[in-house]
Amino acid sequence: MGTFQSLSASDILKRGPDSWNRWREEQPLVKPSLQGEDLEQRYLREVNFSSCNLADTNLTQADLCLANLELAQLDRANLTEAILYTTDLRHSSLKESILTRADLTEASLVKADLSLAVLQQAQLNRSDLTDARLYTTNLRQADLSDVELIRADLREVDLTMADLGEADLRDANLSFAVCSLAQFVGATLCHANLYRANLSLGNLCVANLMGANLTKASFIGANLIGANLYLANLRFANLAQADLREASLRITNLTGANLAGANLSMANLTEASLVRANLTGANLSRANLHQANLDGAILKGVTLPDGRKHP
């Protein structure tokens, strides 16, 4: 203990990760503060920063691979292009932090708070963001493939051109999210809340949206080929020009939805509600409309299941 007695946390860290970790072991009750420190390009692999105050710290291009940042305070920190591969960030606070092009591959971010953070072009593939808070977070062009986002708070998040292929978003809240041109191929969105979300030109091929709330969401020109929308709520959603070939829309609520020009060929619409839906110019060839409710629906120019054109 005497070795470090007269040294500040900053001085101890300068001695390297081994000295720092030894000090943390000797002083388990101390919660060090490195707030505002310049740690740019520092080698910090396997460093124990658990419960540390790293707010406003410059960690640009720092190597934090395998580091322990559980419960750490990283608000407003600059982690641009930092290496956080397999890093433990559970319960950490990263509000308003900058993680542009950071590598968070396989990182654990369970219950982390990334509200207002910037993760543009960040690598998050195979990371765990279960129960994480990403309110209004910037994730434009980020790689979120095969990510766990179960019950995550993604309200008003920007996922423009992001890759969420095979991601698990069960019970996640994406209300008012911007997901235009995003990739959701094979993603799981069961019971997710996408109220008023914008998924225009997005790719949701074979995505699972069973029981999802898609009320007033925009899917203009989106690819929903083979998507599972069983029991989903699409009331007043905009699906104009969307590709819904072979999609499962069993018992789906499409009341007042805009399906003008949509391709629903071979789709399963058994018991679906299409009350007052706009199907102008839609393609329903070989679609299953068994017990579907089309009361008040606009069918002008629709290609019917038998191939005939509706006047």
Q: Which overall shape is indicated by the principal axes computed on the Cα atoms? A: elongated
Helix content: under 10%
What kind of sheet is the major sheet? none
Strand composition percent: under 5%
Mean pLDDT over the full residue set:
97
Number of strands: 0
Low-confidence stretches: none
User: Using only CA atoms, what is the Rg?
Assistant: 24 Å
| Sheet/helix structural class | little secondary structure
Between the first and last Cα atoms, what is the distance in angstroms? 87 Å
Listing every helix as H and every strand as E from the N terminus to the C terminus, the arrangement reads HH
How many individual helices? 2
InterPro entries: 5peptide_repeat, Pentapeptide-BTB/POZ_domain
Protein name: Pentapeptide repeat-containing protein
Task: Describe this entry's structure for a reader.
The chain has 311 residues and is largely without helices or strands. 5% of the residues lie in helices and 0% in strands. The chain has 2 helices and no strands. The protein has helices at residues 9-14, 17-26. The longest helix is centred in the N-terminal third of the chain and has 10 residues, at 17-26. It is elongated. 60% of the residues are buried. The model has no long low-confidence stretch (mean pLDDT 97). This is Pentapeptide repeat-containing protein. InterPro entries: 5peptide_repeat, Pentapeptide-BTB/POZ_domain. It comes from Phormidium yuhuli AB48.
